[in-house]
Amino acid sequence: MIPQPNAPVLVTGASGYIGARLVTRLLAAGYRVRCFVRDPAKLASRPWHGDPNVEIMGGDASEKAAVENALQGCSVAYYLIHSMVAAGQEYRDRDAAMARLFGRVAASAGIRRVIYLGGLGELGDELSEHLRSRREVETELASGGVPVTVFRAAMIIGSGSTSFEILRYLVERLPVMVTPRWVRTESQPIAVRNVLNYLVDCLEVPETAGQTLDIGGPDVLRYDEIMREMAAALRVPRRRVLPVPVLTPKVSSWWIHLITPVGHRIARPLAEGLRNRVVCRNDRAITLMPQELLTVREAIAAALRVVDEGRVESAWLDAGAIPGDPDWAGGRVFEDRRETEVAAAPEVLHQSVTRIGGRHGWYAADFLWRLRGLLDRLVGGPGLRRGRRDPNTLSYGDALDFWRVTSVVPGQHLALRAEMKVPGTAQLDFHIEALGEGRCRLVQHARFRPRGLLGLVYWYAVLPVHGLVFQRMLNGLRDHAQRQHTPPPVTNGNGAD
Fold it and tell me: Which of 336, 347, 338 is nearest to 440 (CA)?
């Protein structure tokens, strides 16, 4: 069951949180990798993009021809696809159908093994819908007869993971937390580096083929105890946790939505799963693949260090479909176009433009941006809490507060599409035109296509604010770029600043 020499290892979901990191580890271990993703452009900024040992293939995992093409010539495949965007039978059925297709095509393609990362959880009727879906995927992947190695993990602690972000924001922002009863449920978290080690190491351990392996760290803690570990790591006062029996998963998911960057549609299946005890029932994984397991305290400290240093390799918000540029032809489109000349080189200005949002802010009227983000959060939108994965660079597909990057050309262009709750379609573009001799022109272009009467009312309601927000943002970008371009002043040599 060891991969055939020179045969690529297929990684589905390579743009996701685990998939993107797994590719890096597989390459370091000497494997050739084929990435199968819905949108190949989302991988353009990955450090391994362009590596001669990496092949990138686009396609839809629900289409047989695309799956056949992706599996051709491979011997081992990682299945890291989840449709966890909403609770309900629809996403369960979709996940099961894709897994069934993948398992049967894998058999006909001669795949020797499929590796799947699922979730821990007690068996039986009390299993949450989310975890029950993971079990169904396990069964469907094996339906074609190919041996499946299943890893079942509880909370994965790592910079940018969904569970980690929920935990960090709740503890950071709430000195007192009213929580559902699941706060007393036991969990066995695992550090993301340990998960990745298992996923790679199993390739060289034939005994793992066809096995279901529970993986977890050395600690078994209740969720309130994990929160206390996070509070200690963040150096904030100990948080008071007050469990109550009346908070449903739906209410919990909206509470998570309002306090953390994670939206209620993703939070709800996670909240439902928290009622299940998630503790390893076997130790076969650590017996077959020994490694040093990080404690919860060590895993949290490592993740926070990466966040503080701006080295987040991948994040939960990287995955998901990216809508293409809207077709602006036809129908009423409102526009706000402004431009200014900048005494800086295009590449310097582009650096200022791509630092926009997140902790850097929007160069002007940040209080208005924060107010708009709060209002968006209250009506179910992402608000500003998503921030950005990297503080200094942007790539196609990146989330940027309540925007999504749909195009980025170094030194020339940045396009953002609104993901906020808005009655219409909105986009914000920045174009940089070189003028020569260290000067350029910045064109800032906002467009909005209203949807119905409410869209018209919305546009005219925010129109007075545009003069303040957009013009000051344009000026702020110009001034910041010019400060970066201007050489430092000459000192008198006495060491004074």
Answer: 347
